[in-house]
Amino acid sequence: MDTQNPSAPMRAQSRIAGKNHPHAGGLIHDNTRHTTRFTVIGNHLAQHPELSALAIGLAVYIQSLPAGARADIKTLAARFPEGRTRIAAALRELEAHGYLRRERKRIPDGRIVTRTISCNQPGSGSDAQDHQPRPRPRPRKRRTATAPKPLPAVPQPAYPAPPLLQTATDLLAGLRHHDPRLLLSERDTAHLAPGVAAWLERDVTPTAVRHALTTDLPPEPLCRPAALLAHRLAAQLPPPPPFRAPAPRPTVRHPFQTCEDCDRAFRAPLPGSCRACRMPDPVQAA
């Protein structure tokens, strides 16, 4: 049985216990200082108010990987049990908040690969993204009649070569021949051309692109045809073409030659002796 100190008043004991344990039911850290194999994670990520738990966990895991490690959806789905759909959605969360960027690059052998860039602190180098209350957005000013609403973003090609952009521009300029409502201004055409180039870069023919942009248009007048085309270019963007390995070189069949020593026929690029005559049996030679 425990004994009590008769010289100490009960209220004093209660105050001491409260001082040593101000939050008896809250969190207590049992920390050990790391000296090797650790990753520094900012509270702006660990306590992000909008990211899901899966997105935060994937960001921490990706930031702990060495440079050059694979961080695509297939590799992450093999590592974690959540599956490709949930992992893809979490990666889109990280992209939306600046913790992840995925860029397509063409490598020397012609393939287009995806390079993943992990950002441990998006934006400026300050702690502005720590867990702080966000300021209320200011009321938007009414748009004037001379300030047109910006067009939706369109896909961008990995290699915007001038001939590719010119083909895309010519395609857009010719849409008015299929539907007079698709008469585009020079400014709208310059905005949409990279989106068309992104389709052409994915082995989509100009005819197929034109069909996707002009089929099933609404019957009523188009107030902003460029906005409709920008939406279609982004929403219906086809996937990259599958990688095709180069065809193997054809097998070279040399013509028949007659051996100068035994008169046998053998295949070789030039006349001479057959293999048997060039390399006699060592047993017979002995």
Output the keywords:
286 residues, two-stranded antiparallel sheet, 4 strands, 36% helix, 7% strand, flat, disordered N terminus
Number of helical segments with 4 or more residues = 11
Task: Report, as a whole number of angstroms, the end-to-end distance.
Answer: 103 Å
* pLDDT averaged over residues: 81
Proportion in helices: 25-40%
What structural category arises from helix and sheet content?
mainly alpha
What's the overall geometry? flat
Instruction: Please describe the biggest sheet, giving its number of strands, its sense, and whether it closes into a barrel.
Output: 2 strands, antiparallel
The largest sheet has its strands arranged as: 1-2
Low-confidence stretches: 1-20, 125-134
Task: Write the H/E string, N to C.
Answer: HHHHHEEHHHHEEHH
Number of strands: 4
Binned strand content: 5-15%
Compute the CA-based radius of gyration: 34 Å
Explain the overall architecture:
- The protein is mainly α.
- Helices cover 36% and strands 7% of the residues.
- It is built from eleven helices and four strands.
- It has helices at residues 10-20, 43-46, 53-64, 73-79, 84-96, 162-173, 186-201, 206-214, 225-235, 275-278, 282-285; strands at residues 100-106, 112-118, 256-258, 265-267.
- The strands form two sheets. The protein has a two-stranded antiparallel ribbon with strand order 1-2. The chain has a two-stranded antiparallel sheet with strand order 3-4.
- A hairpin with a 6-residue loop joins strand 3 and strand 4.
- The longest helix is centred in the C-terminal third of the chain and has 16 residues, at 186-201.
- The model is unreliable at 1-20 and 125-134 (pLDDT under 50).
